[in-house]
Amino acid sequence: MRIFLTGGSGKAGRHVVPYLLDRGHRVTNADLVPLDHPGVDNLIVDLTDAGQVFSALHAWAGFDEMEAPEGTPVPRYDAIVHLAAIPRILLVPDTETYRVNTLSTFNILEAAAKMGIGKVIYASSETTYGVCFVQGEVRPEYLPVDEEHPTRPRDAYAASKVANEVTAQAFQRRTGADIYGLRINNVIEPHEYEQNFAAYMEDPSLRRRNIFAYIDARDLGQMIDRCLKTDGLGYQVFNVANAEHSVGETTEEIRARFYADVPLRREMGERETFYDISKAKRLLGFEPVHSWRAELGRG
């Protein structure tokens, strides 16, 4: 597929882009900073500028596409993968976080609708559930946290992501396109296992704000590829995480320590993530393959 991917130079994108390239997709990375990786086409785009977004989506991906006979239309993108965003609070003022995240997403969705691009995959967030970026401690209403759990943002970043979900639904109703929102959990790059996970084993409370979950950046690539290959679902949101907790404790041990009075809606596996990914497994065939235990030789 010919894919317009935003934010490919970011923490998640720099792993997602190679994953998609390895599976034969052509990827244009629309970002403020190019990605230095063989095979990717880079285009510097300010996604908060609607004119730049429309122009970029009408552009050739590379000089090779210009070898077509004169008058041949510029190829249309088969899909848009929108990962670009201010990635969390406390990087820029809250007003800027909200502005950039909502305006860039609106511009992407509007351009896709007006250009007839029938597949958009965009990054939402675990923060929509209102557990991550809050003062003090907020616990889920029930476990495991699935996509039916209420979204209840209290910060600018989470609010921008919930606003984007509402906007995406509006465009999907208008167009009938497939628009899939990914409520991505804490992205972990391969080097971060050795760098960070010893601290998580020593103090599991460090993972409380992430509902003790994580998503390997390479498995996020798999999730996006599964979305690209799965048509006809209309508007959907999917939790995205790995299959197990990001700490050494079992499900029951974590519950007893942190969630003793939080209702459990179903039986769970000994190491099963509280950030429910059963919908992605069922509808997309998503099966995470990278485990912190394997990465650290813990079996």
UniProtKB/TrEMBL annotation:
All residue ranges annotated as the NAD-dependent epimerase/dehydratase domain in the record: 3-195
InterPro entries reported for this sequence: Epimerase_deHydtase, NAD(P)-bd_dom_sf
Protein name per its UniProtKB record: NAD(P)-dependent oxidoreductase
Top-rank lineage group of the source organism: Bacteria
